Amino acid sequence: MNYEHILIRYAELSLKGKNRKKFESKLEQNIKQALITFPNVKTNRSFGRMFVELHGEDEKAVSEKLKGVFGVYSFSPALKLSLTETNIVDGALWAMKDALPSGSGSFKVTVRRVNKDFPIGSQDMNKVVGGYVLRNMQDLTVDVHQPEVELKVEIRQEAAYVTCKSVRGAGGLPVGTSGKVMLMLSGGIDSPVAGYLALKRGVTIEAIHFHSPPYTNDRARQKVEDIAKVLTQYGGDIKLHIVPFTDIQTKIHKQIPDNYEMTVTRRFMLRIAAVLAEERKAKGIVNGESLGQVASQTLESMYTINEVTNLPILRPLITMDKLEVIDYAKAIGTYDLSILPYEDCCTIFLPAESKTRPTREKSERYEHWLAIDDMVQQAIDGITTVDLKLGEASQPDFEQLF
Amino acid sequence: MIYFDNSATTRPYPEVVDTFSTVARTYFANPSSLHPLGKEVEQLLHSARQKVAESLEVEPQEIVFTSGGTEGNNISIKGIASQYRDRGNHIITSTIEHSATYDACKKLEKEGFRVTYLLPNEHGVILKSQVEEAITDHTILVSLIHVNNEIGSIQPIEEIGQLLKTYPRINFHVDNVQGIAKVTLPLKGTVDLCTMSAHKFHGLNGNGILYVRKGLKIDSLFTGGSQEQGIRPGTENVAGVVAMTKALRLALDQQKTKIFMIEEISRWIEQECEKIEGVFVNSPKKRAPHILNISVPHLKPEVIVQALAEKEVYISTKSACSSKKNEPSRVLISSGYNKERSSSAIRLSFSFENTMEEAIEFMDIFKEVVISMKKVVKK
């Protein structure tokens, strides 16, 4: 006997009323995408349940991939058994032995009988299954309050399903069910985490990165590509828009007083992101700001910078401490890339001090010497876009060498 | 030509040499250079590291590229000794190590470390129980060879690895120069450090891999740049590394399909040798398939090597690295063979490129040489 199915649970989706069908089909699509390297795997849905059928693929490897799929609340490897009492108790015993290889531990049995044609009632079936398992395994005790293993038997129309293990999924909503946002991706520690958390709430993202050659080099750009590539594991294909920013930065550096340079730079970045968002039909902007973390992220700075657009700006990290963000970055696999020491466009021309309390009035006054619309448009026109696809090597030319 | 000296060096695969020359010509920049050429080479190196990690089923950050086996063993042993000398001064190794390990330990003894040299049983094998008995509160390192380079005996590395898991203060280094792509050894969860060398699996001389478990701190023998996490600073030999990556993939593929052929050759020559009077097989029955050690007492092994070479048959005495010393083999002596037999050993070592036809031809030539030389000696 072997686990042939994985039962997927998606709690939050059931709240979504009419949209439910759409959500479910999106989730199924995302799961298929995540499991694309397992050619035999099939998925199917029925009555608020989704099953991954393994057809011989390795359950543990598939589980590892499922853990990263947003919208999955939890999942359990399941046995699918035909509807006879002996089949069900044998399956239950096998699953218990698999869950407790040492043979000792506590458990409880929960039988649900959806299929009322099955002759034994759920209460009686509890006893039948529990008794059989107890007779055939030594050192097993029943604990209905805090069991180590909860043996669940679900008797449905087509078959009975037995599960013992329950694995926490990534939670959230399926990517692609909440619209599209632009992620401002710098290459630091924060913005990739912001992107990840936005994906968790079901959006698709396109990333935007400001590149200032020759002040920022190709490695900095490569690093951002690599980071965006990591995010494709969670959000499927991602378009990365590289904005040429040297010209704007040089002009700002020339025209704007030192202590407002950063504020004005941020306002330009946001303007460009907003224009691009409109072009790409995105309905919001995500960034990695955390309240008070640096000068550009004080409430006053946000108030002043935010003035240039009325698109919603989502800040998933707004209340997080740096250390919490670092933990996330490590868990999602972007940390090691983020700490590579290449200059990004935020650190060049960095003035000795920046205003932590800039005002809208002063920003506007300083900016009015600049041809804002032309500068923004020029940057937009110069954008190059990279399509990052899930599971594709970034340098295919090298493959033949290996 | 019959080349049975593959444990000294294998012939590089032609594809591997092609890769080397392509990379050396095209990707010549220094991977640490900031310009795009440098970046491209850095990417290539990065991809190579990922491929090697995949082949060995470990993580890319656990791969350190070195110049080969001797360097890998020295970095591991001296590096651990230096890093953890405040923790303890006791090292466990064996008498059947390659000289890179054995002499590194001898040197550390002069610096105040205490070294236990475990003796193998008559099959050339160190037992888990011996390691367990040798452990003291001061032990910081166990360093063992996986497949012995002279007689091909296989050490129970996985068992010993499991034992050492219960001693988190002890680091476990394994010299897998002869074992890689011949006798499978899972690294993850078994060892802390593992040495491999490209030219034993049809890569080029001057390239090696050192596996360093993630999180393990180790002192570097060299100071310089921050290449290879500072464990092995110095401008990377990118062409060699990429060539090695290819060789490793090809060799591991061939291991699956061709290892049985090597085993067949080795068994057959063993049987044939046992039929010749005055020829003895020193390798144990249970051994790595590619190494076969035999003695012809009363004949000088160097003379046999030369006589065979005249007929374009190439083999070794002992291991290539110690073959220039005129002493009986330390490995054979400590496995319990007498001085005469230990001083007259020759080593045949096979690769995936050898065939049964070569084995048959070798046997004819070998018999002829041995019989005629014996006649000369007897007079």
From TrEMBL, chain A:
Q: Which InterPro entries did the record assign?
A: Rossmann-like_a/b/a_fold, ThiI_AANH, ThiI_fer, ThiI_N, THUMP_dom, THUMP_ThiI, tRNA_STrfase, tRNA_sulfurtransferase_ThiI
Record carries keyword Ribosomal protein: no
Q: What is its EC number?
A: 2.8.1.4
Name the Gene Ontology biological process terms.
Answer: thiamine biosynthetic process; thiamine diphosphate biosynthetic process; thiazole biosynthetic process; tRNA 4-thiouridine biosynthesis
Q: In which pathway does it act?
A: Cofactor biosynthesis; thiamine diphosphate biosynthesis
Question: Which reactions appear under catalytic activity for this entry?
Answer: [ThiI sulfur-carrier protein]-S-sulfanyl-L-cysteine + a uridine in tRNA + 2 reduced [2Fe-2S]-[ferredoxin] + ATP + H(+) = [ThiI sulfur-carrier protein]-L-cysteine + a 4-thiouridine in tRNA + 2 oxidized [2Fe-2S]-[ferredoxin] + AMP + diphosphate; [ThiS sulfur-carrier protein]-C-terminal Gly-Gly-AMP + S-sulfanyl-L-cysteinyl-[cysteine desulfurase] + AH2 = [ThiS sulfur-carrier protein]-C-terminal-Gly-aminoethanethioate + L-cysteinyl-[cysteine desulfurase] + A + AMP + 2 H(+)
Q: Where is the THUMP domain?
A: 60-166
Residues recorded as binding ATP, renumbered to this chain, are 184-185, 209-210, 266, 288, 297
Q: Which Pfam families match?
A: ThiI, ThiI_fer, THUMP
Q: What is its main location?
A: cytoplasm
Ordered alphabetically, the record's keywords are: ATP-binding, Cytoplasm, Nucleotide-binding, RNA-binding, Thiamine biosynthesis, Transferase, tRNA-binding
- Provide one Gene Ontology cellular component: cytosol
Looking up PROSITE patterns in the UniProt record yields:
THUMP
Summarizing the function annotation, the protein's role is: Catalyzes the ATP-dependent transfer of a sulfur to tRNA to produce 4-thiouridine in position 8 of tRNAs, which functions as a near-UV photosensor. Also catalyzes the transfer of sulfur to the sulfur carrier protein ThiS, forming ThiS-thiocarboxylate. This is a step in the synthesis of thiazole, in the thiamine biosynthesis pathway. The sulfur is donated as persulfide by IscS.
The name of this protein is Probable tRNA sulfurtransferase
Q: Which gene encodes it?
A: thiI
From TrEMBL, chain B:
What cofactor does this chain's UniProt record say it requires?
Answer: pyridoxal 5'-phosphate
Signal peptide residue numbers: none
Sorted alphabetically, which InterPro entries does this protein's record hold? Aminotrans_V_dom (IPR000192), Cysteine_dSase (IPR016454), PyrdxlP-dep_Trfase (IPR015424), PyrdxlP-dep_Trfase_major (IPR015421), PyrdxlP-dep_Trfase_small (IPR015422)
What UniProt keywords are attached to this protein's entry?
Pyridoxal phosphate
What Pfam families has UniProt attached to this entry?
Aminotran_5
> What residue stretches are annotated with the Aminotransferase class V domain?
2-358
What is the protein name stated in its UniProt record?
Answer: Cysteine desulfurase NifS
Q: Which organism is it from?
A: Salipaludibacillus neizhouensis
